[in-house]
Amino acid sequence: MEFAFTDEQAMIAETVQAFFKDNATSERTRAAMEADGIDRELWTAFCTELGLAGVGLPEDFGGAGLGMVEFAIVAEAAGAQVAALPLLGLATAARAIAAGGSEEQKAQWLPRLVSGEAIAASQGIHGLTVVDNTLTGDVQFVPHGASADLFVFIGNDGAWIVRKDMPGVSVASHTTMDQTRPLATVSLAGVEAEPLADAAAAHHALQAGAWICLAAEALGGAQETLDRTVAYSLERVQFGRQIGSYQAYKHRLADMMVDIEQARSAVYWAACAVDEGSDEAQLALHSAKSFCADTYFMCAGNMIQLHGGIGFTWEHDAHLFFKRARSILSMYGNGDWHREQVAALIMGEAA
Amino acid sequence: MKLGFSQAEEEFRAECAEWLQSQLNGDFADIKGLPGMNSMIERRKDWEQRLAENRWSVIGWPEEWGGRNATIAQQVIFAEEYARAGGPNRANHIGVELAGPTILAFGTEEQKAKFLPGIANGTQIWCQGYSEPNAGSDLANVRTKARLEGDEWVVNGQKVWTSLAHYSDWIFVVARSEEGSKGPKGLTFLMMDMHQPGVEVRPIKQINGDAEFNETFFEDARCPADSLIGTPGDGWRVAMGLLAFERGVSTLGQQMGFRNELDAIIEAAKANGLAKDAVVRQRIAKAEIGLRLMRYGALRMLSNADTAQIDGAALTYKIQWATWRRDLGELAMDVLGQAGEIAEGEEYEWSALPNMFLFGRSDTIYGGTNQIQRNIIAERGLGLPREPRGDK
Fold it and tell me: Which of residues 269-288 of B touch A (CB under 8 A)?
């Protein structure tokens, strides 16, 4: 038992934090928000120069090995800058293919995803019509769906790869509140999808990847809202004092730190539990997703309030955090759903 | 980063569990699962001695003082197995967790020889003399006076909220030794014998009807000149150093008690059907998540114990558990409904969950109120300016 980063993990954290701080600037993120919510230059640099897109993916197929702890470190750093990247697609689709795909599927897709050549997205398709491997219907709310070359769709009875260029696939992008991760509707008209060999393994890996990615992004974002608000509270003077010296203000910041520290425990508990194949992994994942999403939203809301009028402006970055936090609340199961899963795990089903 | 325990650690766990269970299902079955701190004191002292005879009373201490030099992981394991086996609250937890580590860290060799064996074997029970009627949150505003007369310190004043003073043998006292000094300067940290005519203890009845707290009065109470830790006037540094020990491994054992409380709520909810209620399920899930995060926060804190940097997990731990437990009491009463408001017998005495609800109101006060915790977090953790004082 050693619940602290190893030297190697601390080094990865330092590298990746510096990378996003230097490159995922407000200016560049805002430029991506005007387009499809992806900073291509950033994504290419992340995948090639930094070589961290393969974290948590098998080395045989271009991945970097390592595990979910290291992936969480990366997602935390990306989330801290609200970086406009298709990281969630990597966390879900690529992991689903790695866990449930055939050797051929892995060889075909993983090197391209890890190098940034192809962009992936994924979503659950529980309401769709599925006949053999033919999919028909609309898949809603696909994150970065309009930019994806490849989709992994997970249903009750299977998991499939769908290429954007397959006959019958059409994609409609939506103007989305969080412009750093716009949602799209992917319409499937009798699409002959390619099934993943082991759907259950794919499903499991996809969920774990999604929940850890979102929880870690939320942790990074929440910490950043706190740090930026602390900095502001030391600059801003009212009634002849720094506003950070007033208890009404500083206690709110303290409450943010209390929850953020718990969120940090949650993310790395879940990541470790998955990496170590612990019995607690499901409990940890549901705990992490729900707790971190709530923490981020609380912190981002406080960031706006504690900045006063400037925090409500388009010019200030507070809304980027606030909107990302809002989108994470609903993505891949809302808090009530995750907590109900926790309740079921500890006390059995309700019905 | 690793959460699992090694093979050797799992073997140590089995050894702990086997010994604890054999004792608590055997000679000490009468105090197995005993709640609170106030009942069956003599039997609990016997238990301390049995622990000590088998080197289980202070496992983190060096071997020469009765410990096992146990690693953090081993201490975690012991705390968990102790609670799992139904070990009662430690009669001498203030001695074992606060006084002992302070003496180990700052005491002279003579002091170690004088006090550590008695703490380790449970024959010297300790209490803590910090708070006073005018020194609560503003702890440095201590007025109890100590003056050196020949080869003795003579102490006059009053302490309050001294938990367990009514059966303690020793007390550590922060007293003002420099006439006219103010705040944290001019304080001295003294170790005093409770069994003397100048010390009087009066119990304070609490909202749950029990009396674990006391007022402690000093009227020309005495101790030898060498009873101080550190130097005269240096008591604040020692007192603050001691508070750091409060966040040690013992928190893991405390959490196992919380686990039992939450499990009792779940059982009550299953019994009365509320376990199927969606709102109650949400609240129970939140409590479960909070408890788990407390455990992993404590493990982070312990894993980072040897680093110099300010550790966020340690800084936020007190307000985290205190608030969680207060909320757990409210959940317990909502699950029990009005049945929770009726005592078991005619006396004003409460079963575990209603008692926890009442006692929980003190959790967010003692050891630094939630409001003081927020000041500490904001000032030390976030580097925010201190609140200006009104008396300077």
Answer: 269-270, 275-276, 278, 281-282, 284-286, 288
Which candidate from A3, A233, A247 shows the least CB-CB separation from B299? A3
Pick the last residue of a domain from B40, B69, B91.
B91
**Is B99 among the domain residues?**
no
Q: Which two tokens stand for residue B158?
A: 């009053």
Give pTM, 2 decimals: 0.95
Question: Mean of the pLDDT values across residues B107-136?
Answer: 94
CA distance A253 to chain B (A): 7
Indicate if B186 and B158 belong to the same structural domain. yes
pLDDT beyond 60 at B308: no
Interchain CB contact of B305 with A (< 8 Å): no
For residue B354, the domain's CATH number is 1.20.140.10
Q: Which of B289, B300, B378 sits opposite A250 (nearest CB)?
A: B378
Domains in chain B, number: 3
The partner residues of B189 in beta bridges, in order of sequence, read B174, B229
SS3 B150: coil
Kindly report, residue by residue over B242-276, the tens digit of the pLDDT: 776 666 677 777 888 899 899 999 999 999 999 99
Q: B74 lies in which domain range?
A: 7-91
Over its C-alpha atoms, chain A yields an Rg (Å, rounded) of 20
Residue B246 a catalytic site member: yes
Domains of chain A in sequence order: 201-347 (1.20.140.10)
pLDDT at B245: 67
**Residue holding tokens 């969950």?**
B353
Count of alpha carbons within 13 angstroms of residue A231, beta-carbon side: 6
Asked whether residue B373 falls in the same domain as residue B251, the answer is: yes
Show which of B205, B233, B261 is a domain's final residue: B233
Q: What is the mean pLDDT of chain A?
A: 96
Quick one: which of A128, A169, A175 has its CA closest to A150? A169
The shortest C-alpha distance from A169 to chain B (Å) reads: 40
| Gap between the Cα atoms of A81 and A218, Å rounded | 11
Beta-carbon contacts of residue B152 (< 8 Å; ≥ 6 apart): B222, B223, B224, B225
Q: Are B98 and B242 in contact (CB under 8 A)?
A: yes
Could you tell me the two tokens for A30? Answer: 């805002």
Q: Could you give phi then psi for residue B222, rounded to 5 degrees?
A: -130, 150
Do B285 and B211 sit in the same domain of this protein? Answer: no
Q: Mark yes or no for CB contact A264/B371 under 8 Å.
A: no
Best of A250, A278, A299 to substitute, by most chain B Cβ atoms within 10 angstroms, is A250
- B85 lies in some domain: yes
Question: B90 and B119 in contact (C-beta within 8 Å)?
Answer: no
Q: Which residues contact A96 (CB under 8 A, 6 or more apart)?
A: A122, A152, A154, A159, A196, A202, A203, A205, A206, A209
Interface list for B 75-114 with A (CB within 8 A): 76
